[in-house]
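Module 6 notes. Inverse folding takes a fixed backbone as the condition and produces residue identities as the prediction. Think of it as a translation problem where the source language is geometry and the target language is the twenty amino acids. Below is one complete input and output pair. Work through it position by position during the lab.
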């Protein structure tokens, strides 16, 4: 059995980077005007390089069935999260026009990127990490289609939001793997890709810590939102994701991805979406902040218990 203390030791660097970002913001070393440029560099250049480096040569991605299951579950689990968020939002008395839609979106969508990636790599290795990026195509599609509909009633898919560096990198990587030429990407070019990509997540997580300080200072807590979102994001949805990992006919790597996804706090994407589509940004900020803080306590237990229940063993240092 994987012990929670072992998981804590493995994922502690991620949380230390968040704390470091908060401290640097407080000291004025990393200012707000730095955030957009740094995140743009990370998302458009560093992250695609990191993704390509991990996908190329990944044996698990040679199976079309595994790839389709990954994308499908990425999409499907977001739908489960949105529905759960909507039902709990009604239960705690939220109404449309007063935070109900924002609650459903923010509580229902996990942090599938910046926090999840280093945790998956630490616990499970490169095979599961490559599959996570494929899984996230389904997540992104669900968020920018059904998520937008939930938030503002807008119908249709925001295709432009799906055309970004990470999605393009995953697509190119899968094509190269399917053609069987991914192993030929070697030498100085491959090394340069690896060097550029290695800092993508440390830098992004650091900026996340900076941003969270700004958010915490700007909003007063609503205890209905705090308790309800914690129940959804750290209780009900993890149980649903872990059930899928246990009972569906999935590859070991995809089960590993789902166990980590189950433990993730709410994603910061919801804050951006409320700003774009007129949702209740204050509600999204509270949900992201409280679930991220609480996840330091819940994440080790969800991963440890979930791994044991599903029947996984971690590749821990």
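Target side of the pair, the amino acids:
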């Amino acid at each position: 059995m994987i012990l929670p203390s072992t998981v804590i030791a493995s994922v502690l660097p991620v949380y230390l980077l968040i704390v470091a970002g908060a401290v640097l913001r407080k000291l004025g070393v990393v200012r707000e005007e730095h955030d957009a440029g740094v995140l743009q560099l990370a998302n458009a250049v560093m992250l695609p390089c990191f993704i390509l480096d991990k996908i190329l040569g990944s044996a698990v991605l040679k199976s079309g069935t595994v790839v389709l299951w990954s994308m499908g579950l990425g999409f499907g689990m977001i739908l489960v999260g949105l529905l759960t968020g909507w039902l709990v939002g009604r239960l705690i008395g939220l109404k449309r026009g007063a935070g109900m839609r924002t609650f459903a979106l923010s509580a229902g969508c996990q942090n599938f990127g910046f926090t999840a990636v280093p945790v998956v790599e630490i616990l499970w290795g490169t095979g599961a990490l490559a599959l996570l990026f494929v899984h996230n195509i389904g997540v992104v599609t669900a968020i920018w289609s059904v998520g937008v509909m939930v938030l503002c009633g807008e119908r249709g898919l925001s295709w432009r939001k799906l055309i970004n560096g990470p999605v393009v990198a995953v697509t190119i990587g899968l094509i190269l793997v399917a053609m069987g030429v991914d192993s030929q990407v070697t030498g100085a070019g491959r090394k340069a890709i690896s060097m550029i990509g290695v800092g993508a997540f440390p830098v992004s997580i650091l900026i996340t810590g900076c941003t969270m300080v700004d958010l915490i200072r700007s909003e007063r807590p609503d205890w209905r939102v705090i308790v309800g979102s914690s129940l959804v994001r750290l209780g009900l949805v993890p149980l649903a994701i872990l059930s899928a990992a246990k009972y569906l006919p999935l590859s070991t790597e995809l089960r590993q991805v789902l166990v980590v996804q189950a433990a993730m706090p709410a994603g910061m994407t919801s804050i951006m979406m409320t700003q774009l589509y007129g949702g209740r940004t204050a509600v999204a900020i509270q949900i992201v902040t409280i679930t991220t803080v609480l996840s330091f306590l819940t994440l080790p237990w969800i991963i440890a218990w979930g791994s044991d229940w599903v029947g996984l063993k971690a590749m821990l240092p």
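Reference fact for the lab report: The chain is about 80% helix and 0% strand.
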